[in-house]
Write a structure and sequence with these properties.
The chain is about 45% helix and about 20% strand. With about 325 residues, the chain is α+β, with helices and mostly antiparallel strands. The N and C termini lie far apart (about 60 Å). Keywords: Activator, DNA-binding, Transcription, Transcription regulation.
Length: about 325
C-alpha cells in the first residue's frame, strides 16, 4: 500500500498489526509505503512512513495473540514499554510480546521490517519440545539479543527473503521452498535468547489415574527405543484424547514432552557416568533418540543450565 495521508496509513496498519494512535510533528504529507508477505503462522512487513522531517510517534494497544519483531533498516527508533526504554538502530531489534502495549518515536528516515509471529505457534513448538507446559509465552531477552549480534543475523535472513520477493522469479511461489523458509524463520526466532515460561502449578491435588503412572513406567522402560504416542495408547489401554487430557491435568504437560524430559534426564545421568566410562556426547545423545546434536544441546541447556559437554567435563 502507498498513501500520502497519515490517517490512511494508521487505519491500514491498525487493521493488520495492532490498533494504534499515530502523531507527526510535521504538517507535510507523508509518503507511506507498506509491503506484506504472508506465510503460515507469520507475516513479514516492510514499513516506511516517508516523512520529510521531524519525528513519527506511535502508541499501540495491547497485543493479544502474537509477537512483533521490529527490525530497523535505516534511521533510529525509541521504544518505551513498562517504564523501560530501548533505542534501536540497524543491526538491532525490539520485541513486543503478547499482552504488551508500547510507545515508539521514530526518526524521519526510519524504515524497518516487522515480523508478526503467532504466539500459539511458538508455544506449541516449545511444548512439543518439553520447554514449556501452559502458562505465559516465552519472553525474549532484547538487550542480550542486541548485544550478542543475533539481531543482525535475523535481520539478514528477513532481508534476503524480501529481496527474493522483489526478484522477477521468486522461489516463494514453490510450496516446498515456502515451507522451508517458514521453518527457517521460526527456528531462527526460537534460537534467540529468551526466558521460557515455567509450568503452571497443578490444578488438582488428587492422585494421578492409573494410566498416567502406567504410561510413565512404559516410558522409563523404553527410553532408548523409538516409541510414539500411539505406542503409549496401546500400552495403557486408553484413548489418545484421554491420555493427553490426563497428562495436562495431572502433569501439566503432554505425553511427548514428558518422554523428552525423561530422556534428557537419562542423558544427563549417562553424561555424569561417562566421566568414568569414556563415552562421548554423540553416543549418549543418539542412544536416547536425540539425533540433531545442536537441538539436543539447546534443549539440554534450557533444562539444566549447562551444555552436555560441560556436564561431561571432569571437575
Amino acid at each position: 500500500m502507498n498513501t500520502r495521508f497519515a490517517d490512511q496509513a494508521r487505519e491500514h496498519l491498525s487493521a493488520i498489526l495492532a490498533p494504534h494512535r499515530l502523531e507527526l510533528d510535521t504538517r507535510q504529507a507523508v509518503c507511506f509505503t507498506h509491503n506484506r508477505l504472508l506465510l503460515q503462522g507469520l507475516s513479514l512487513h516492510f514499513i516506511e512512513y516517508g516523512v520529510p522531517a521531524g519525528v513519527v510517534s506511535l502508541e499501540a494497544q495491547e497485543l493479544s495473540d502474537h509477537y512483533l519483531f521490529k527490525i530497523p533498516l535505516s534511521g533510529m527508533a525509541q521504544y518505551r514499554q513498562a517504564g523501560a526504554y530501548f533505542e534501536v538502530r540497524p543491526g538491532m531489534l525490539y520485541v513486543v510480546h503478547p499482552g504488551e502495549t508500547f510507545v515508539s518515536s521514530m526518526s524521519a528516515d526510519y524504515t524497518h521490517l516487522t515480523l508478526q509471529l503467532n504466539a500459539a505457534l511458538i508455544d506449541s513448538l516449545d511444548e512439543e519440545d518439553g520447554l514449556r507446559a501452559g502458562g505465559r509465552s516465552a519472553c525474549f531477552e532484547i538487550a542480550r539479543i542486541n548485544a550478542d549480534g543475533q539481531a543482525r543475523a535475523l535481520s539478514g535472513i528477513l532481508q534476503a527473503i524480501c529481496e527474493d520477493t522483489t526478484s522477477g522469479a521468486s522461489l516463494l511461489g514453490l510450496p516446498a521452498f515456502r515451507q522451508t523458509i517458514e521453518k527457517i524463520v521460526v527456528n531462527a526466532v526460537r534460537a534467540l535468547p529468551r526466558k521460557l515460561a515455567q509450568p503452571a502449578c497443578s490444578a488438582t491435588t488428587s492422585p494421578a489415574p492409573f494410566f498416567i503412572k502406567r504410561a510413565e513406567e512404559y516410558m522409563h522402560a523404553h527410553l532408548t527405543a523409538s516409541i510414539c504416542v500411539d505406542d503409549l495408547v496401546q500400552a495403557v489401554g486408553v484413548s489418545r484424547r484421554t491420555l493427553h487430557a490426563g497428562f495436562r491435568n495431572f502433569r501439566q504437560t503432554t505425553p511427548g514432552a514428558q518422554l523428552k524430559r525423561m530422556r534428557l534426564e537419562a542423558a544427563r545421568s549417562a553424561l555424569l557416568d561417562a566421566r568414568e566410562t569414556g563415552e562421548n556426547v554423540t553416543d549418549i545423545a543418539t542412544r536416547y533418540g536425540f539425533f540433531h546434536l545442536g537441538k539436543f544441546a539447546r534443549d539440554f541447556r534450557a533444562r539444566f543450565g549447562q551444555s552436555p559437554s560441560e556436564v561431561l567435563k571432569p571437575r
